[in-house]
């Protein structure tokens, strides 16, 4: 799936727009001593839904559109987020997926975050004397990006230490003053939007886990209701996950024939997981807050449509679950 599209170059105008309109978007812009630009969208700054919408588009490397609308699908939760990308594999897996583990220090003051966004596509490391992508996924995608400036998004509630910024700059082969770091705490309005905007990405990620050929996914769109924020981190995270697991719909357009499209549709919905059936915060608590014990197949939209473009046939699977959504959002 070789592509000459630059997710960093396409995301940059959105980042510059956010900086230029920081007052209107209620963002706090800081330049650290090493020259890095930090965009705070919910720690000391108030941020908001529009900031979250723009951050979601940055996460997708400027290759996706994210919009907010009202929908009658769920009686109590009309505010709905819609995502579309004509380059869904690169936008979602090559940029938006939170796959770069970044940490510094040990013990109580240690910093740990999963980086998402276009910087991932530039990050490399030396392995056995050979330069490789930081994430193995890029070998599979056959995609790498090169750009003079880069942006990374972290779902955290504090500014990363300079050592983490230095690590990002080194891995991406840019100066630290060419790094933009966007911070969105889970409990913030912007944070909620940028997580729910992953409704298409989780469908792509699960398709990848099911070994569906990514090159056969040629277009995609998805939607999910936007949950109210919650000051408690676990409940906030639970609600954003549940928006997708119980309220998300994804429509993928694929090549490769009817049988493969139908199989993908049947295996994609969140309800195929052993852990489906209760709000995510409850599942997480039962696993003693160990994210890696949760069945990875849970993370997918509730309802899917897969259209086989060669025949024009569409396959539907899964159902929206208003009762579980209500338990999560109304708690």
From TrEMBL:
Pathway: One-carbon metabolism; formaldehyde degradation; formate from formaldehyde (H(4)MPT route): step 3/5
EC number: 3.5.4.27
Pfam family for this entry, one: MCH
Taxonomic superkingdom: Bacteria
GO molecular function, one term: methenyltetrahydromethanopterin cyclohydrolase activity
Catalytic activity: 5,10-methenyl-5,6,7,8-tetrahydromethanopterin + H2O = N(5)-formyl-5,6,7,8-tetrahydromethanopterin + H(+)
Compartmental location: Cytoplasm
UniProt keyword annotations, A-Z: Cytoplasm, Hydrolase, One-carbon metabolism
Main localization, broad class: cytoplasm
Root EC class: hydrolase
Stored InterPro entries: METHMP_CycHdrlase (IPR003209)
Family listed: Belongs to the MCH family.
Function of the molecule: Catalyzes the hydrolysis of methenyl-H(4)MPT(+) to 5-formyl-H(4)MPT.
Entries under NCBIfam families matching the protein: one_C_mch (TIGR03120)
Identification of the protein by name: Methenyltetrahydromethanopterin cyclohydrolase
């Amino acid at each position: 799936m070789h592509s000459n599209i630059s997710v960093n170059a396409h995301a940059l105008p959105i980042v510059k727009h956010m900086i230029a309109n920081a007052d209107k978007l209620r963002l706090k812009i800081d330049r650290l001593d090493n020259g890095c630009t930090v965009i705070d969208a919910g720690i000391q700054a108030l941020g908001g839904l529009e900031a979250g919408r723009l951050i979601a588009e940055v996460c997708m490397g400027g290759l996706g559109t994210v919009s907010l609308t009202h929908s009658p699908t769920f009686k109590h939760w009309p505010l709905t987020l819609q995502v579309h990308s004509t380059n869904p594999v690169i936008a979602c897996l090559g940029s938006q997926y939170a796959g770069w583990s970044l940490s510094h220090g040990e013990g109580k003051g240690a910093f740990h975050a999963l980086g998402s966004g276009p910087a991932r596509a530039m990050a490399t490391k030396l392995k056995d004397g050979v330069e490789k992508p930081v994430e193995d996924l890029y070998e599979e995608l056959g995609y790498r990006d090169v750009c003079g400036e880069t942006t990374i998004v972290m779902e955290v509630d504090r500014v990363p230490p300079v050592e983490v910024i230095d690590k990002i700059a080194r891995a991406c082969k840019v100066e630290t003053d060419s790094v933009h770091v966007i911070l969105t705490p889970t409990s913030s309005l912007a944070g909620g939007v940028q997580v729910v905007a992953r409704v298409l990405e989780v469908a792509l990620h699960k398709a990848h886990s099911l070994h569906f050929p990514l090159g056969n996914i040629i277009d995609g769109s998805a939607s999910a209701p936007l949950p109210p924020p919650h000051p408690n981190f676990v409940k906030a995270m639970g609600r954003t996950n549940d928006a997708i697991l119980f309220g998300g719909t994804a429509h993928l357009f694929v090549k490769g024939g009817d049988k493969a499209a139908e199989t993908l549709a049947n295996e994609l919905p969140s309800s195929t997981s052993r852990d489906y059936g209760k709000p995510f915060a409850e599942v997480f608590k039962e696993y003693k807050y160990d994210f890696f014990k949760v069945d990875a197949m849970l993370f997918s939209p509730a309802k899917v449509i897969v259209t086989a473009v060669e025949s024009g046939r569409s396959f539907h699977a899964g159902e929206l679950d208003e009762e579980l959504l209500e338990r999560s959002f109304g708690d």
